[in-house]
Amino acid sequence: MTNIKKVSELAGVSTATVSRTLKSPDQVSQATREKVLEAVKAAGYRPNWLASSVKSGRSNTIVVLVPNLVNPFFMRIIGGIEQAAQEKGFSVLLGDTQGSPEREHEYASMVLTNRADGLIQLDHSFPFSAADADLAEDLPMVSVCERIATEKKYPVIELDNYAASRALAHHLLGYGHKHFAAIVGQISSQIYRERLAGIRSVLQEEQIPFEQAQITGGAYTIEAGIAGVEHLLSLPQRPTAIFCFNDDIAIGAVHAIKKAGLRVPEDISVVGFDNIKVSAFIDPPLTTVDQPAYDMGRRAVEVLVSQIRGEPLVRSKEVLPFQLIERESSGPAPL
Amino acid sequence: MTNIKKVSELAGVSTATVSRTLKSPDQVSQATREKVLEAVKAAGYRPNWLASSVKSGRSNTIVVLVPNLVNPFFMRIIGGIEQAAQEKGFSVLLGDTQGSPEREHEYASMVLTNRADGLIQLDHSFPFSAADADLAEDLPMVSVCERIATEKKYPVIELDNYAASRALAHHLLGYGHKHFAAIVGQISSQIYRERLAGIRSVLQEEQIPFEQAQITGGAYTIEAGIAGVEHLLSLPQRPTAIFCFNDDIAIGAVHAIKKAGLRVPEDISVVGFDNIKVSAFIDPPLTTVDQPAYDMGRRAVEVLVSQIRGEPLVRSKEVLPFQLIERESSGPAPL
DNA sequence: TGTTTCAATGTTACCGTTTACATTGTCTGA
DNA sequence: TCAGACAATGTAAACGGTAACATTGAAACA
C-alpha cells in the first residue's frame, strides 16, 4: 500500500506537507509543491478515503431505500438523486429493500454507524428498528413521494396527490363516465389515502357512487393490474373507467381488458399515474399524471444535504407540480 | 458522539474489552460481557464503521457502473448484485455514468482510494482514466454483458450473444422471412458485433442478403426504435422482419410500425432482446431472448468478491444460458 | 541592527477501532 | 507449596490521514 508516509519520504518532506499539497496547495511553496506532486505521481499515491473520512467524521454518502429497483419511476427519482449527490460531492449507497422491514433496518442503521450521513426513504415506513428508534432521533432523513409514518416530522418531497387524482377524475367525468373503479397500489400508504380521497371528493360532488367493491389492488405491479381487471370484469356492474394508481398497474389493466375482448378506451377508459417512459408507446398510449421524478430526487438531495450540514430547515414539505397527460387510453364513456 | 471509550468507562473496563465483547464475545467472561452489553445499550453505542474499515483496510463496498439507470434490464442485473452483495456483507455504490467517460473515471477511482474494494462494469469501456490506468492494474473488476475493451483480461459474465441471435434468426427464417433488417444499439460494443455476426452467419448459410442499409440504430432506446423503423420504411425494399437489439428498441419499433398503419406481425415481424417485464404485456407481446439478468448480477458479485479476497480466478469467462421467448410479435412472412 | 511578522514546514496529537503483546490471577498437578 | 498453563483483561501501538501548534528563517520596518 502506498501511503502518505512513503510519498513524504520520497519527496523529502513531512507527511503534513504532502497532505497540504493535496488539500490546500496555496499553503505550500511552488518548489515544494512540484516536488511533492512528482513524488505522488512516482508512487502512484491516492489518499485513502476511509482515513480522511474517519478523521472528518463524515462519509459524504447517502443511503437511498428503494422498495423496488425495477420500477422505472423510482429509477427516475434515483437518477435525480445520483446527479444532485454527485454535484454536492456525495455518493449514493443503494438499498433495495423489497419492502422488507429487516432490510430497511439494516440499511437505515448505516447512518447510525457513520457509514452514511443521511437517508432518503422512497417507501412510507419508518426504516429504523424499534431498538434503534431513539438513536435515530435527529438523523438527517428525507422522504420522497410517500410520507414516513412517525410522529416526528421529517421533510418530505411530494406531489399533490389529492389534486392530481381530482384532475384525473375531472378528466374522466368530462368524458361522461359514471361507473368508476380503482386499482390501487400498496394499501395503508399515504399515497393510497390521498389519491382515493381525491377521487372520492370529486365523485361525491357529482353524487356519483364509488363502491368499496370497485377498489382492488395491493401492489404497484403489472400483475396487480391484470388481477384487478379480472376482478372488476366479474362484477355485476362493470366500470367504464378505471383509475390505476401507477402506470405499471395501468399497463396490466390495459393488457387484461384487451385480452378479455374489450377495447380501450371505447369500452373502458384507463388512466395511470407517474408517466413512465413506456406509457407513451403502448397501445393505446396512456393517459396519466406526470410526476417530476428527476426533480424530486434532486430536491430530496438538496434538502438532505442541508440537513446534514446542520442548516436550519426551510420547509418541512415541498409539493412539486404535476401535469395531466391526456393520451388515448381515456375517451368518451360508452353509451 | 458516543464512542467506544465512553462505553468502556461506563462499563468500567478497557476499550479492548468492549471491542472484544462485540467482535469476539467468546474471549470475554460472561459477567463482563453482560456488563459491557448493558453499557452499550445505555450509551446507545454503535461502532463507527469508518474507523473499523480504516483499520481493516477494507470497505466491503463495491461500485457498479451503470450506463443508464432507467433501463429495466440493467436494474434486474443490479437487483441480483444487491442481493448477492448483501449476502456477502458488501454494500453497493451506484454509479450512474450516462456513458460519460469522466463520470466513469470518477466512480472507478473510488477503488483506488479505498472507498470501494471492487468494481462491476455494465458498459464496455475501460473505466479508468489514462492517468490511473497503471494503478488499476490488478484491481478487482468484473464486467457483465459487455466485455471491457482492454488487453488485460478481466472476468466477464455474459450471454452467448452469437448463439442467441442465431436462434432469433432461425426463428424468423422458420416463418419464411427473406427480407431482414436490424436496429442495433450502441455501435462499437462487443454485443453489437456478436449479435450482428450471429444474424449474418445464419443468413449467409441460407444465402439471404443482409444489406448495410438495413442496419440502423445507435442507442438502446425507444426513440432509436422509432427512428429506425422510420428509416427502414423509407427504403425501396421494406423488410418483413426486424431484429431489435433490445426490448426498448423493439417497443419503439412496434409503436412506429403500427403508427405507420402496418400490423405486427402480419406485415412486419419484430423481435427484441433482454425480455424485460413489460415486453410480455405490450400489444403484441414481444418475441425476445431472455437473459438471466438477476443471476448475471449474482454471479458477477460472487466472482468479484472472490477476486477481492485474493482467491485464484477459476474461469475468466462465464457464459449464462439464454432462452428464446416466442410471443406474438413474430409470425409468418407476408406473401 | 534588533524586533516583528509571516510564510513555509515540521512535530505531534488525534479520529475511533482493532489487536499484538503484557499483565494479572486462578487453577492444576507434582 | 510452587512452577506452569491458561483464561481474562489491560496497555499501547497501530491503521492512514488531518490539523493544531511549534519552529524556522527570511523579509520588513523602525
Give a structural overview:
2 copies of one chain form a homodimer. The first copy, chain A, is an alpha/beta fold and 335 residues long. Chain A is built from 11 helices and 12 strands. In chain A, the strands form 3 sheets. In chain A, strands 2-1-3-4-5-11 form a 6-stranded parallel β-sheet, with helices on both faces. In chain A, helix 1 packs across helix 3 and helix 9 (222-233) packs across helix 10. The longest helix of chain A is centred in the first third of the chain and has 16 residues, at 72-87. The radius of gyration of chain A is 26 Å and the shape is elongated. Chain A starts with a helix and ends in a 10-residue tail after the last strand. The interface between A and B is large, with 48 and 48 residues.
Précis, in short:
The structure is a homodimer of 335-residue chains. Chain A is of the alpha/beta class and 335 residues long. Chain A has eleven helices and twelve strands.
- Our Rg estimate of chain A from Cα atoms comes to 26 Å
Give the SSE order of chain A as H and E letters: HHHHEHEHEEEHEHEHEHEEHEE
Largest Cβ-defined interface: A-B, 48 and 48 residues
Residue ranges of chain A: pLDDT <50 for 5 or more in a row?
Answer: none
- Taken from the alpha-carbon principal axes, the silhouette of chain A is elongated
- Ends distance of chain A: 78 Å
Decide which structural class fits the backbone of chain A.
alpha/beta
Strand content of chain A: 5-15%
Q: In total, how many beta strands of chain A?
A: 12
Largest sheet features of chain A: 6 strands, parallel
Helix amount of chain A:
40-55%
Strand order of the largest sheet of chain A: 2-1-3-4-5-11
How many helices of chain A in DSSP terms?
11
Rounded mean pLDDT of chain A is 95
Oligomer: homodimer
